[in-house]
Write a structure and sequence with these properties.
Blueprint (H helix, E strand, L loop, with lengths): L1 H10 L9 E5 L4 H11 L6 E5 L2 E6 L2 H20 L4 E3 L5 E3 L4 E3 L3 E5 L8 E5 L8 H8 L3 E6 L2 E8 L2 E5 L10 H9 L3 H15 L2
Parallel strand pairs: 8-9
Antiparallel strand pairs: 1-3, 2-3, 2-6, 4-7, 5-6, 7-8, 9-10, 10-11
């Protein structure tokens, strides 16, 4: 079944900036999930998410990858300019067998100190999947999850056993979310980075 899923994705490659290829399999055992991860460990073309027996494989579009990189570049400017200790983990596979969940965020970071699981995970969403990503991140104990969808951010903070929507990041308190959004949207990436950096240098001068 898993081999067929991958073959399907490979036979139907996305030929536009927008379309992402997506495949779902259910039921999948934890052992099958880990076997698939081993099979794909040298292939960065896919994102794999698993929750309670449901497995989803996504082949991100070119536009998706461009947006995630822009967000990462801007956040790294924030870390540098605010002297915030950070550990970039990118799209590392995080999983917990005990809670039967695992995923590969678009970008992820530990803040302050390096940990087994990230404090912040970022998801760029162009097409909706069947797996509840917040449920997966809850199983991993990720403090904040940000979604970029419809050209804007939605932020969630883990409070007890549930995620609560927040208007401002508690992990990155000096972050102007409105400015970050404008810079991600800007058609000129170089100009956007310079504008973002200028804001912090004026703010903290």
């Amino acid at each position: 079944m898993l081999a067929e899923l991958i073959q399907n994705l490979e036979q139907n490659p996305s030929d536009t900036l927008e379309i992402e290829e997506r495949a779902i399999a259910n039921p999948i055992t934890w052992k099958q999930y880990e076997t698939l991860l081993l099979k794909l460990e040298d292939n960065s073309s896919y994102r794999v998410t698993y929750l309670n027996g449901v497995l989803e494989i996504v082949s991100p579009s070119r536009r998706h990858e461009g947006v995630k990189k822009r967000i990462a570049t801007l956040l790294e400017v924030y870390f540098e300019e605010t002297d915030t200790e950070y550990f970039p983990l990118g799209s590392t596979t995080f999983r917990t067998q005990k809670r039967r969940g695992g995923t590969e965020p678009d970008e992820s970071y530990c803040i302050g100190t390096e940990k087994a699981f990230p404090d912040l995970a970022i998801e760029v969403v162009f097409t909706s999947g069947e797996i509840d990503k917040l449920a997966v991140y809850k199983s991993l104990g990720v403090l904040e999850v940000w979604f970029w969808q419809n050209n804007q951010f939605s932020l969630y903070r883990l409070e007890g056993d549930a995620y609560t929507p927040i208007s401002k990041s508690e992990l990155l308190p000096d972050l102007d979310l409105t400015l970050l959004t404008e810079c991600v949207r800007h058609p000129n990436p170089l100009f956007a980075v310079k504008l973002f950096r200028k804001h912090f240098r004026e703010e903290f001068k």
